[in-house]
């Protein structure tokens, strides 16, 4: 599972060439499809957070998201709210909140909105599952 998460995040953040990305994307989608529906939901939503932040926020290079860092996530069958998430970019963690809705198979994102908060002080990292 950890390897899958690392692979998904690395590819989402790397912006690989289209042919290499297409091959990797297909393999990753097959792996994600094997996950239980709630894990798949969280993986897809966290991946969307990384992709959107990378595209829309100049100077940020998100590499990891912890959806439950500061508050429990709220999940339904095909939606997830992460009011206390965090993401790491360039060695710093930032507060993040997002709302995510997926298709019935939890493989594609229907809607996604997010808000970035302040930098998380390093002194808080360990108690919120945030690693350097």
TrEMBL record:
It comes from Phyllobacterium phragmitis. Keywords: Signal. The keyword Signal applies. It comes from the Bacteria. Pfam families: DUF930. This is DUF930 domain-containing protein. Residues 1-22 form the signal peptide.
